[in-house]
Amino acid sequence: MMKIDFSGLEPNSLLRGNPNELLSGLSTAPEFQIPNTNDFDGFQKESVQMVKPAKGTTTLAFIFKEGVIVAADSRASMGGYISSQSVKKIIEINPYMLGTMAGGAADCQFWHRNLGIKCRLHELANKRRISVTGASKLLANILYSYRGMGLSVGTMIAGWDEKGPGLYYVDSEGGRLNGNRFSVGSGSPYAYGVLDSGYRFDMSVEEAAELARRAIYHATFRDGASGGVVSVYHVGPDGWKKLSGDDVGELHYAYYPVEPTVEHEMAEASSS
Amino acid sequence: MARYDRAITVFSPDGHLFQVEYALEAVRKGNAAVGVRGTDTIVLGVEKKSTPKLQDSRSVRKIVNLDDHIALACAGLKADARVLINRARIECQSHRLTVEDPVTVEYITRYIAGLQQKYTQSGGVRPFGLSTLIIGFDPYTGVPALYQTDPSGTFSAWKANATGRNSNSIREFLEKNYKETAGQETVKLAIRALLEVVESGGKNIEVAVMTKKDGLRQLEEAEIDAIVAEIEEEKAAAEAAKKAPQKET
């Protein structure tokens, strides 16, 4: 049976043996040598399992009347070791689009920067900004072409384009969802609890930011893999703006101040 | 000069790409095609050479759809056109797949022009022997657009343009008579322009009208005949008006 010839569908393989230097490596997925094992499927499964627990983080984003709020913690963990408390998990793709990081830090950072390049090229070629739909689709297509190769990315693309505020969830399994509220990471169940119960469409920017802050804080309280600093960003019609960055330890005492007890006062009196 | 038209990738000493210029000659021998952009309507008209009696004229459509909101007419080698049109149609769908958005007219024109240019800079291939007129509405802003590409791979936007046989006369006519029109007026202007070089009659021209709401609509022969009749009347009336004052003096 003759194999169906899909060569016409490849946009850049117009003339055989005439590689298009400008675009090589940018729009087509680079070719990958398959690892030299006997059991390729088993190897794939193992490599996926190795990276799986690494989505230790809490990120969330939601659309409301005034735009999109994006918030994340800043802890990076390697198993039980906290490797950093100050990771930037909200990546600035361009002045009007943000991406969040969950999963492999290197994977998220690299592919978000690559997405930023593609968005800029689209702008230059088409004289208009790319839509959030288009940007998320570009990322999802790339991640899908690497499916099964061990990438670990669970990201949300948030932005404001001609159609208004936009929010998409994209992951390394190749999934892409459009929605109003998302939370990604090991702390997401806790964040969803606070977010879903406190969410209203018509909030002010301050109220929405406070809701996001509290949701992340509660996730860091219960989830060991989340912590550090809560960053909150707002995406409006003129682009994104960072609203706050609060240490969760300090937030804890702000939300739950310690009641001074009799022993405290006596200890202070004797020391002063 | 004759030495420089065998391997097409070379320049002549005075800076010409002869194969490209010969391709433009092929275009000049092709059917006349005209495009007119109105405020809410864009019209494409193509000269139809007399169809042999036994030929099924419906199988020789000269104005084609590239997508729901983009259409194309061309002058030159029809077989080359088929290849270009297929590639453009695939690109329209591929764009919808990768960015979930329909193409803009400018994007697909740039793609087609890029394709035509590639074939002027590769070994062993010849340029496409056709110029295209591409019309469509921007999927978001709804602004109508008319673009033209040629075998060298250049493209530009136009308010009204013609290509193919006698395109210079048609263009002169359009330059003299163009004004911003809408709806039926745009159709009339396009047909009047085409009638400058084509024998009048519904069976000698093919006209298609694109609106934002209804997309591309091919006009029936009867409709075209009716409009041609209107135009003839208007022309006769204008002639009579010109002659009448002369009689009085």
Automatic annotation (TrEMBL), chain A:
Signal peptide annotation: none
Record PANTHER family: METALLOPROTEASE TLDD, PROTEASOME SUBUNIT BETA
Function: The proteasome is a multicatalytic proteinase complex which is characterized by its ability to cleave peptides with Arg, Phe, Tyr, Leu, and Glu adjacent to the leaving group at neutral or slightly basic pH. The proteasome has an ATP-dependent proteolytic activity. Component of the proteasome, a multicatalytic proteinase complex which is characterized by its ability to cleave peptides with Arg, Phe, Tyr, Leu, and Glu adjacent to the leaving group at neutral or slightly basic pH. The proteasome has an ATP-dependent proteolytic activity.
Record's catalysed reaction(s): Cleavage of peptide bonds with very broad specificity
Principal place of residence: cytoplasm
Annotated compartments: Cytoplasm; Nucleus
UniProt keyword Glycoprotein, yes or no: no
Lineage: Eukaryota, Viridiplantae, Streptophyta, Embryophyta, Tracheophyta
Protein name per the record: Proteasome subunit beta
GO biological process, any: proteolysis involved in protein catabolic process
UniProt keywords, alphabetically: Cytoplasm, Hydrolase, Nucleus, Protease, Proteasome, Threonine protease, Zymogen
Superkingdom per UniProt: Eukaryota
Homology family: Belongs to the peptidase T1B family.
From TrEMBL, chain B:
Proteasome alpha-type subunits domain span: 4-26
The keyword Cytoplasm appears for this protein: yes
Any single GO BP term: ubiquitin-dependent protein catabolic process
Signal peptide feature range: none
GO CC term, one of those recorded: proteasome core complex, alpha-subunit complex
Subcellular compartments: Cytoplasm; Nucleus
Subunit structure as annotated in this protein's UniProt entry: The 20S proteasome core is composed of 28 subunits that are arranged in four stacked rings, resulting in a barrel-shaped structure. The two end rings are each formed by seven alpha subunits, and the two central rings are each formed by seven beta subunits.
Record function comment: The proteasome is a multicatalytic proteinase complex which is characterized by its ability to cleave peptides with Arg, Phe, Tyr, Leu, and Glu adjacent to the leaving group at neutral or slightly basic pH.
The name this protein goes by in its record: Proteasome subunit alpha type
